[in-house]
Design brief:
Layout lengths: L5 H17 L8 E4 L3 H4 L3 E8 L4 E5 L1 H5 L9 H11 L32 H6 L3 H11 L1 H11 L23 H12 L7 H10 L1 E4 L4 E10 L4 E12 L2 E12 H4 L1 H14 L4
Helix pairs in contact: 4-6
Length: 275
């Protein structure tokens, strides 16, 4: 077909191009800022990635590490909760599962809450590893693969074992990918039931005040030289605004503890003028 008016073709191309951009918030951002957070991070190796949908803006500290994939550790409890509810591996957040010390022998560093029965709410709050290993076994490899592909979650690799692939194993995800997953979850773009989304959003609340609410999950892995890999991923709601974030740290226990990660995240939001 011969196009008599080249301007028509050019206009069509621009329309398609803009459509692609506007449907990818990380490409179409009105602003992409490298932010100096060195005062907060100090000598601790780490990265921070934030997406602000109000301004269609993303902000990052340590751009290279924001693109690098790491084991999600216990941050995987977010998608694991979603998948378990969707597949019926667990009915709701109130169903309790008994602790089996024969199957999961306790270790000296375990929290007291790990050595007792838990439900989805308490297991997420106290990051009970054995509970989520049990859920993954019930979900099964086929369903897990299907949902991770549907969610486009990291490298989607579960070859490390159905009950441990997220624990310093085959599954990897970057801070930037964590934020995109959370954005889709929050905006109900994962195409899971509203009931599932509501339950997970409810149990994910970490801190709530009169002025803001932080919904987030930590993740911790052990590295060499007594160092840990630490995550804090989630979103902050303030008034009618929401901000999606992923913090990734590598350091000694006192430098990268869960408490330290939350403190740093709030300091970052303060520096950015959000808190």
């Amino acid at each position: 077909m011969k196009i008599k008016h080249p301007l028509v073709f050019i206009g069509l191309f621009i329309t398609i191009f803009l459509s692609i951009l506007l449907n990818n918030p990380f490409v179409a951002s009105s602003q992409a800022n490298i932010t100096d957070l060195s005062r907060i991070f100090g000598n601790t190796t780490g990265a921070f990635f934030l997406y602000n949908p109000q301004n269609n803006q993303y902000i990052y500290y340590n751009e290279e590490r924001c693109e690098q994939e790491f084991p999600p550790m216990s941050t995987f409890k977010i998608p694991n909760s979603i998948i378990s509810l969707e597949t019926g591996a667990i009915a709701d957040e109130t169903i309790t599962v008994s602790y089996d010390p024969q199957k999961y022998p306790s270790e000296d560093w375990w929290f007291p809450e790990w050595k007792q029965e838990n439900n989805l709410r308490s297991a997420l709050k106290y990051s009970v590893v054995w509970f989520y290993r049990e859920l993954a076994l019930k979900v099964g490899a086929a369903n897990m693969k299907k949902y991770l592909a549907h969610f486009q979650y990291g490298n989607q690799d579960i070859s490390g074992g159905i009950d441990k692939f997220w624990l310093s194993s085959s599954l990897k995800i970057s801070p930037k990918e964590q934020v995109e997953f959370l954005r889709k979850f929050y905006n109900n773009e994962l195409l899971v039931s509203k009931r599932t989304a509501d339950i997970v959003k409810d149990i994910l609340v970490l801190e709530e005040t009169d002025t803001y609410k932080i919904s987030a999950k930590t993740g911790t892995g052990f590295l060499e030289d007594d160092k840990i890999l630490g995550w804090l991923v989630g979103y902050l709601e303030k008034s009618d605004d929401v901000y999606f974030f992923a913090l990734n740290l590598e350091g000694k226990q006192d430098e990268a503890s869960g408490k330290k990660r939350l403190e740093m995240t709030k300091q970052i939001f303060t520096q950015l003028g959000i808190l």
